[in-house]
TrEMBL record:
<feature type="transmembrane region" description="Helical">
    <location>
        <begin position="295"/>
        <end position="315"/>
    </location>
</feature>
<feature type="transmembrane region" description="Helical">
    <location>
        <begin position="368"/>
        <end position="389"/>
    </location>
</feature>
<dbReference type="GO" id="GO:0015297">
    <property type="term" value="F:antiporter activity"/>
</dbReference>
<feature type="transmembrane region" description="Helical">
    <location>
        <begin position="172"/>
        <end position="196"/>
    </location>
</feature>
<dbReference type="InterPro" id="IPR048279">
    <property type="entry name" value="MdtK-like"/>
</dbReference>
<dbReference type="GO" id="GO:0042910">
    <property type="term" value="F:xenobiotic transmembrane transporter activity"/>
</dbReference>
<feature type="transmembrane region" description="Helical">
    <location>
        <begin position="56"/>
        <end position="80"/>
    </location>
</feature>
<dbReference type="GO" id="GO:0005886">
    <property type="term" value="C:plasma membrane"/>
</dbReference>
<feature type="transmembrane region" description="Helical">
    <location>
        <begin position="396"/>
        <end position="416"/>
    </location>
</feature>
<keyword id="KW-1003">Cell membrane</keyword>
<feature type="transmembrane region" description="Helical">
    <location>
        <begin position="101"/>
        <end position="124"/>
    </location>
</feature>
<protein>
    <submittedName>
        <fullName>MATE family efflux transporter</fullName>
    </submittedName>
</protein>
<keyword id="KW-1133">Transmembrane helix</keyword>
<dbReference type="InterPro" id="IPR052031">
    <property type="entry name" value="Membrane_Transporter-Flippase"/>
</dbReference>
<feature type="transmembrane region" description="Helical">
    <location>
        <begin position="250"/>
        <end position="283"/>
    </location>
</feature>
<feature type="transmembrane region" description="Helical">
    <location>
        <begin position="32"/>
        <end position="50"/>
    </location>
</feature>
<feature type="transmembrane region" description="Helical">
    <location>
        <begin position="327"/>
        <end position="348"/>
    </location>
</feature>
Length: 473
């Protein structure tokens, strides 16, 4: 029992006292469901857009890394900063700060949403052209990008409000909102892409419109839930004032996470650009295969969301050893999940690529990626889940270093592979090496005590635990 226990909500107390593994699994189950559903949003759209032809599929593939950058920044980076700040405030018994953080989260999300809209409208076409877009595929990219990023604020608000709720340890409500929205998207997406009866189709723009409707309805639902006082936190507009300390509490973790997110997506964008030298089919094949890697992000976040809440609450309450144990248990679960998917994809790559295109060149390029990179997805899962745990701890220096190392290895290695004459195989081999470095760096840094002081190698667990006990004392 912690000194602050009398002031803690029952949900918060469970994060501090309940068995770690069963709590993570219990909280992670609905969160995995919500993240799978959210990932399916993009897959549903891609499935129907793929029926419009190769130019449509490759054009959307050009935009996809940037869309995922926005989704990962809003839900994982800044969203993780929001969840971490609220969890640490609740763990420390600072209920008033936790309530105020909700409106600060809304302000931050609106600002970032407008920034993404402006950046995409001004520089999107230039970016897509440099990634290998031309002709009809570039025109598709321009259209799709204009619509999606025109509604960027909706994406940011949805993920900010979902992160607020997750920060309290409630994973079920965001899960329900996302799953219901995904079910509604299944008929809405083809209706707006192809049209039916009196409803005319909008082509690739229809896919973007359906996506934005999903985020609009989800945002309204979450806003109503929080405003009605049904969450642990209860924002109050009367007397609200912007506090630098609370903004800093979100942004200190969120911006560091944003660096990691940018590095991840730039690595994908670089690989897309390198693949572009082999033609439209190579772009479409790699872009389609890489969607599976992006699918791993929400799957791991299914565990990462509860980890942010648990680690953050434990750190706020001074329970450092429990926070560390939670990180390693979550790591084991993430490795099992992502490695199983990677091995299956490597064994049956055409089964995945064939969902989106039957073009032999597209299938060949995508299959080559999955066979080379899929077996190393476990390292990606390890690095990513420890990134989320580090968000909860408020210590993201080493996850940022790990992601920058991944970017350097993927970019420089891919370029060297091409120079050596290894073709697409060289580009994808560099991607695999980058994932290994990412996972091992994150694990080694946390094992070396990065959350609690300077990293010390070689790792001596007994010495680390003594250091924790000394600091707690």
């Amino acid at each position: 029992m912690t000194p602050n226990a009398p002031a803690l909500n029952a949900r918060t107390r469970r994060l501090l006292e309940a068995p770690i593994a069963s709590t993570l699994l219990r909280l992670g189950a609905p969160n995995v469901a919500v993240m799978v559903a959210q990932a399916c949003v993009g897959l549903i759209e891609t499935y129907f857009i793929g029926r419009l032809g190769l130019d449509a599929l490759s054009g959307v593939a050009l935009v996809f890394p940037t869309v995922m950058l926005m989704q990962m920044m809003s839900g994982g980076a800044i969203g993780g900063g929001i969840s971490s700040a609220i969890a640490r405030a609740l763990g420390a018994g600072r209920r008033e700060d936790a309530d105020s953080l909700v409106l600060h989260a809304v302000l931050v999300s609106v600002a970032f949403g407008l920034l993404f809209t402006l950046a995409a409208w001004l520089g999107g076409e230039t970016l897509y052209r440099h990634m290998g877009g031309s002709g009809a595929s570039l025109e598709v990219a321009r259209t799709y990008s204009g619509w999606v990023f025109g509604g960027a604020v909706l994406v940011w608000l949805f993920n900010a409000l979902a992160s607020v709720v997750r920060g309290t340890g409630n994973m079920a409500v965001p899960a329900a909102v996302t799953c219901v929205g995904t079910l509604a998207l299944i008929p809405a997406s083809p209706l707006l892409i192809f049209g039916y009866g009196p409803v005319r189709g909008f082509g690739v723009a229809g896919g973007a419109i359906a996506l934005l409707l999903y985020y609009l309805l989800g945002t309204l639902w979450l806003a109503r839930y929080i405003a009605a006082g049904r969450s642990v936190v209860a924002p109050r507009l009367r007397g609200f004032r912007v506090r630098r300390a609370l903004l800093a509490d979100i942004l200190r973790v969120g911006l560091a996470g944003a660096v990691s997110t940018v590095a991840t997506n730039v690595a994908i964008a670089i690989a897309t650009g390198l693949a572009g030298g082999f033609g439209v089919a190579a772009i479409a094949g790699y872009g389609t295969a890489a969607r599976l890697e992006y699918l791993l992000v929400p799957l791991v976040f299914g565990l990462g969301g509860p980890l942010v809440a648990m680690v953050g609450t434990c750190i706020g309450a001074g329970r450092r050893e429990r926070a560390l144990h939670a990180a390693w248990i979550g790591s084991g679960l993430a490795i099992l999940l992502t490695e199983a998917i990677g091995l299956l994809a490597a064994a049956l790559p055409a089964a995945w690529i064939g969902l989106f295109s039957q073009d032999p060149a597209v299938i060949a390029a995508g299959s080559l990626y999955l066979r080379q990179v899929g077996p190393f997805y476990g390292f990606f899962g390890l690095g990513l889940v420890l990134y989320f745990a580090s968000q909860g701890a408020g210590k993201l220096k080493w996850p940022v270093i790990g992601n920058l190392a991944r970017l350097a290895i993927a970019g420089a290695g891919g370029w060297l592979g091409l120079r050596a004459g290894w073709g697409l195989a060289g580009v994808f081999a560099a991607q695999a090496a980058a994932l290994v470095a990412y996972g091992l760096l994150n694990a080694a840094s946390i094992a070396g005590g990065a959350w609690f002081g300077p990293v010390g190698w070689p790792v001596r667990p007994a010495a680390l635990l003594r250091r924790l006990e000394a600091r707690s004392a």
